[in-house]
Amino acid sequence: MAAVSIAAGTAHAQSEVYLCVDQNGVKEYKNTGDTKGCKRVSLPPLTVTSSGSKPAREGAASKPAASTPTDFPKVDNGTQKARDNDRRQILQDELRNEQQRLADLKKDYNDGTPERQGNEKNYAKYQERVASMKEDISRSEKNVDALNRELSNLK
Predict the structure, then answer these.
(1) 19 bridge partner residues
(2) Which residues contact 27 (CB under 8 A, 6 or more apart)?
(3) Which of 89, 94, 104, 124 is most deeply packed, by most CB within 10 A?
(4) d(Cα 118, Cα 77) in Å, to the nearest integer?
């Protein structure tokens, strides 16, 4: 059984590989060379072996638990608590600033009809600024959500 899987793995690994470069210089590896700009790449043979162990059940952890190296620096509880408090304060400050920025953006946006500026005689220019404002509001809302999530994840 293991010999069959080894042979199958080697046969699959020996298939042809092509390096294709498009007109923009973007490189892509493919298993067919039917596109213009593709050249066959010579790769060393692969050997696939079986570990002999049963495959992991679905939902089971596939990686062993990571152990901490013995020379890894340790932090006492008081220091860690101070660091966590500093982090919480920084996140709260960032959240407050982002909420203020969002409020200012929404005020300027004026429900999709901000005041036209003197240099916006061309309506397309005005629409471009409105679209940019809408993107800024969306980005700021996402930042507020992310900061709230981060704060809720703190212990």
Answers:
(1) 29, 39
(2) 19, 20, 21
(3) 94
(4) 59
